[in-house]
Structures are given as structure tokens and as C-alpha cells.
Amino acid sequence: MSNHLYPHFGILLVDDEEPFLRSMSIALERSGGFTHIYRCQDSRKAMDIIASEPIGLVLLDLTMPHITGEQLLQQIVADYPDVGVIILSGLNQLETAMNCIRLGAYDYYVKTTDDDRLIEGIRRAVRMQEMRTENQALRQRFLNDTLEQPEAFADIITQDKSMRSVFQYLESIAPSNQPVLISGESGVGKEQIAHAIHKLSRRSGPVVCVNVAGLDDAVFADTLFGHRRGAFTGADKARAGMIEQAAEGTLFLDEIGDLSPSSQVKLLRLLQEGEYYPLGSDRPKRIRARVVVATHHNLEQKQQSGEFRKDLYYRLRIHQVEIPPLRKRKADLGILLEYFLSEAAQEMGKSKPTIPKELPVLLENYDFPGNIRELRALAYDAMSQHRSHILSMSVFRRILDIETPPPDPNENLCPVHFNDQVSLPTLQEMGDLLIDEAMRRAQGNQSLASRLIGISQPALSKRLKKKGL
Ligand SMILES: Nc1ncnc2c1ncn2[C@@H]1O[C@H](COP(=O)(O)OP(=O)(O)OP(=O)(O)O)[C@@H](O)[C@H]1O
């Protein structure tokens, strides 16, 4: 049995028939994966349980001695409007059902409803309750601008405001069991975010990472689900899959946008049913890990073009975070550079160098297609070549020279727009404007400004002198 209570709030079953209470809790646990269940056979005690336990959803019988279900429903709605109520009644009467919904019940089921439909309805209600608490938590964090567990983000170096919002959002969805989709360009730190999500969830198990790009369907199934002995030729031993290894923890599936269509079906079924079959086994196992996925692709676009299943996309994006690229987190450049230089210096047994003044300016004008991974590699490269007091700029200068692609003559990309109504500036005036802009972007650094506009530094210096600067 799982030691992680799900959902994070309790589900209270109120019914005067003990056998029904028992069979219902077994169905909730086995088919629904719900483990946070309270039972109440005496309707007079139901309100006390709601007062003393963290109840979020009540499954309520109608015909009970002492206090009827309808009376209890009214009390719950009046005293605990945030607690959801589903009626589970032996009465198949439209009028009663309508009345209960009017009084504030979330849904109404007849006890003879088949288990699958009932469990699906309860899942929907749990999801609604989760969203309600997530919204409340998120609003609270935004209003107070607080983080409750900053230690979960200790490895993520940032002072960017949008990253702080990402952290606040992640805290608010931490108790949920639903999948999380992390998107963002390569190297922005998606895997680090997955680890932070795991820490926030306070799950006792490990984080198990699987890169699913390029796995064919059979390998994907075997990797995730494992197999029984003799499941296929060569399977001489049973092997637990990654889902099993991540029990009570987090299963992190990286590069989910590259998953093959047949594996997408398998993942969808796993998320929908919460169950899977190890290869060669006809007994389903219940997943006891939270699933976190990441991609550098735009899944919305992939879904529209038919490359990614729409139903899987909607399942995955219940909780979604987009990690901004480094070029949009300029405030992070300086602290990340300092951090990586110190880290590299320590690893290489060197003393940390002084950073030349022009370096931050140079970096601010670079796009970092490889994001933080690229900055880290540059810092390590520079440290490996570092000898004296001030850090050499040579490694960093290379990126501007090499990485800025030459303009494509076939592409009609004009970075400046001219107004048809106004006469054109002269070549001389245009040159002056360009120099002013380059000097502004380079914060007065002539060597950098000259690189930005593709002339030598002495040539720039000459033109500035001519301009009287
Ligand atoms: N904010 C950060 N602070 C410190 N290190 C970071 C930060 N963000 C990323 N890194 C480092 O940058 C490297 C790339 O990060 P990570 O692997 O998490 O990126 P990713 O988005 O998952 O990349 P990919 O899409 O290629 O899998 C790692 O070495 C990671 O430790």
C-alpha cells in the first residue's frame, strides 16, 4: 500500500451500511488510487469528522437514521462551502437528484452505477477540489510574494522575477498527484525544475529520469513497465520498470515531445487508468509515482500538426510551466557567471578570477541559444585557460565572432523600418545613428560596440572622434 496519501485532502464516506463503506473504500483505493479515506457509519458524527480532519470531499448516502443525507448536505454547504459533496444514493429518483444538486451537491450517483463511471466522477470532483486549493494557494503566494519552501530551489541560481513566479506556481501545485509539463528551450534548467518539483512534493521515493527521445515502442514499454521472466526471448529474469523504481517518488520523462505515436498511446493509458501491465503479465500494477515530463518542443504546435496526441497533451498540461530562456533573464547573467566561475575554480583548484568590466556587457548582447548550459560551458572553458588575476576575455569574444550567423542574403530581414512619409537619412547620418545605438548597447565599451556593427575598434574610435565624442 502507498504511504503517500492521495489526494492531499481526505475523502469522507458517510453511509449507515458497514458493508457498503468497506466495499466502497476498497474500490476507491484499487480502481481510483485514492488512499486518503475516512469512513463514517453514524451520520451524527460526520460534522465532527469534517471539523477535525482535512476533509475536502464527502461521498454521502441519503437514506440514513438520525440525520438524513439531505440535512447533512445542507449543513456541509452552509458551514464548509469549500468541501465538495457527491451523493451516492440507493434512490434512482430524478427529483431527489435535482434537489440535491440545487442544495449544492457536486454530483449524484445511484449506488448501482458501474464502478468505472463512479470512479471517473470522483476523479473529476477530486481534480476540481485540487484546482480550488491550488488557486487559493497561488493567490496567497502572489499576494504576499512568498515562498514556503525556498530550500527546494536552492540549486537554481536566479534573481529573475519570472522564475520566482514559476517557483510560486510550483509550490501551489506541489501536493497534487497530477502530471506536470515543463517546457522551455534546451539548457534552460528543466531537469533542475523537475528535481525541485520532487523536493516540494515531499515524497519519500527517488526521482527516476528517463530520456524517451529515440526509444522505440518496445524499448519504451520495457523501460517503463518492466517485464516478467520469460516475457520475451532473452528475458531470463523478471525486471522492474522505471515506474516501479520511482515508487513513492517522481518519474521524470525528458524529451516527451519526441515520443513515438504508439508510445504516446501507452503513456496516455497509464495516466488515465493509473495502471500498467509489465510485459508478459496479465495482472495490472498501480503507478505510485508522480509523473513529470519535459520538452523543448512547442507541444501546442505539435498537437495542432497531428504529431502529438491531443488527448495526451491535454492530460499533460493540467499543470504546465514554461521556463524562460536565458536571453530573457538578463538579471541572471551576472550571478550565474559568478556562480559557474566559482564552481569551476573550486573544481580546478584555482583561485576565482576578477571578472573584466566589459564581460557582462558582452554577454548581455549575446542570445545564448544553448542557454544556461552554454554559459556554464563557457565559464568552465575560460577557467581552464585562466592563468593570471583577471579573467581572459578570449573565450567569450569567440562566441560573438563565431556564433553570430552571417546575414542570409535570401532573407528579407530589415531590422530598421523606414517611414514612407519621411525622407531617408543620408549614409553619414545613418552611420552616426548606428554608432550611437551600438555604444548604447555596449554601455560605452568601444571594443564591444565595434564588434556589434562589424568594424574595427580603431575605425570606431576614429568616427567617434570625428563626431566629437
Ligand atoms: N538556474 C540555474 N542555476 C544553476 N545551474 C543551472 C541553472 N539552470 C540550469 N543550470 C545548469 O545548466 C545545465 C543544463 O540544465 P538542465 O539539464 O536542467 O537543462 P534542460 O532544460 O533540462 O536541458 P535539455 O532540454 O537539453 O534537457 C545543468 O548543468 C544545470 O545544472
UniProtKB/TrEMBL annotation:
Residue list for modification 4-aspartylphosphate: D61
InterPro entries for this protein: AAA+_ATPase, AAA_lid_NorR, CheY-like_superfamily, Homeodomain-like_sf, HTH_Fis, P-loop_NTPase, Sig_transdc_resp-reg_receiver, Sigma_54_int
Domain of life the protein comes from: Bacteria
Start and end residues of each Response regulatory domain: 10-126
Name recorded for this polypeptide: Sigma-54-dependent Fis family transcriptional regulator
GO biological process per UniProt: phosphorelay signal transduction system; regulation of DNA-templated transcription
Gene Ontology MF, one: sequence-specific DNA binding
The keyword Phosphoprotein belongs to this UniProt entry's keyword annotation: yes
